[in-house]
Automatic annotation (TrEMBL):
<dbReference type="InterPro" id="IPR003439">
    <property type="entry name" value="ABC_transporter-like_ATP-bd"/>
</dbReference>
<dbReference type="InterPro" id="IPR050334">
    <property type="entry name" value="Molybdenum_import_ModC"/>
</dbReference>
<keyword id="KW-0547">Nucleotide-binding</keyword>
<dbReference type="InterPro" id="IPR011868">
    <property type="entry name" value="ModC_ABC_ATP-bd"/>
</dbReference>
<feature type="domain" description="ABC transporter">
    <location>
        <begin position="6"/>
        <end position="231"/>
    </location>
</feature>
<dbReference type="Pfam" id="PF00005">
    <property type="entry name" value="ABC_tran"/>
</dbReference>
<dbReference type="GO" id="GO:0005524">
    <property type="term" value="F:ATP binding"/>
</dbReference>
<protein>
    <submittedName>
        <fullName>Molybdenum ABC transporter ATP-binding protein</fullName>
    </submittedName>
</protein>
<dbReference type="InterPro" id="IPR017871">
    <property type="entry name" value="ABC_transporter-like_CS"/>
</dbReference>
<dbReference type="InterPro" id="IPR003593">
    <property type="entry name" value="AAA+_ATPase"/>
</dbReference>
<keyword id="KW-0067">ATP-binding</keyword>
<dbReference type="InterPro" id="IPR027417">
    <property type="entry name" value="P-loop_NTPase"/>
</dbReference>
Length: 258
């Protein structure tokens, strides 16, 4: 995957270039307003850059130098948003089957495989309004997969979920990576998500790529050792530090990582 894009959005200017692995997860990492979602719009074909190029393998999707621009509906790209955007008048099964109606070419990703990996078989007859946030996101991912994409875009898909639901969906995204070998472009501002899922990280700030490389290189885990003082507080280098969730006995040695 090759992405090059220059696009003016009011006072904001997107001007970046990066490459991602053919069968792994490329994470676009940066603060809100950095240009991550604007980049996804260019890749998805929802926005035309003033100058740029988008290639998926040997397929040229955008090339302003030659005037080539493949419309979004013909790009064979699946897109999952922060909110699931399921059709409220359709049950889960019919939402999923809508993905099949958008499929082009060979059906490489089967119905049974998607239902199994995402563990949504028991949800098929339910209405979207009867699902938890994590379940809705899993169904949204399933619908995108059944459209037979050659690239899956995920725009902060767990940012609106609580910690338990977030961990649940991230585990399923990791399972997709292992099962289908499908390239993904994953947007997040959370370090733990980038570390967990990323094969390649592209750091973005103010519309520019500031660095790219492996999560281990760019987002190394940091850790210190201290002693628990009381619930939620540890003594580290002689200083009491608040550690949310810490529930070790007083005096116990603890390792705090971030």
């Amino acid at each position: 995957m090759i992405v090059e894009a220059v696009r003016q959005l009011g006072a904001f200017r997107l001007d970046l270039a990066f490459e991602g692995p053919a069968d792994g997860v490329t994470v676009l990492f940066g603060p809100s307003g950095a240009g991550k979602s604007a980049t996804l719009a260019v890749v998805a074909g929802l926005a035309r850059p003033e100058r740029g190029r988008v290639m998926l393998g040997e397929r040229v999707l955008t090339d302003t130098a030659t005037g080539r621009f493949v419309p979004a509906e013909r790009r064979r790209i699946g897109l999952v948003h922060q909110d699931a955007r399921l059709f409220p008048h359709l049950n889960v099964e019919r939402n999923l089957r809508y993905g099949l109606t958008r499929a082009r070419g060979e059906r490489r990703i089967g119905w049974d495989a998607v239902v199994e990996v995402l563990a949504i078989g028991h949800l098929l007859l339910r209405s979207p309004r009867d699902l938890s946030g994590g379940e809705r996101q899993r169904v949204a991912i399933g619908r995108a997969l059944l459209s037979q994409p050659e690239l899956l875009l995920l725009d902060e898909p767990v940012s609106a979920l609580d910690a338990a639901r977030r961990a649940e969906v991230l585990a399923f995204v990791g399972a997709l990576k292992a099962r289908f070998g499908l390239p993904m472009l994953y947007v997040t501002h959370a370090v733990e998500e980038a570390r967990l899922l990323g094969d390649h990280v592209v750091m973005i700030a103010d519309g520019l790529v500031t660095a790219q490389g492996s999560p281990a290189e760019l987002l190394p885990e940091r850790a210190v050792t201290g002693r628990a003082m009381r619930e939620g507080v540890a003594l580290i280098d002689g200083v009491e530090v608040a550690v949310p969730g810490l529930a070790a006995p007083e005096g116990a040695v603890v390792r705090v990582s971030w």
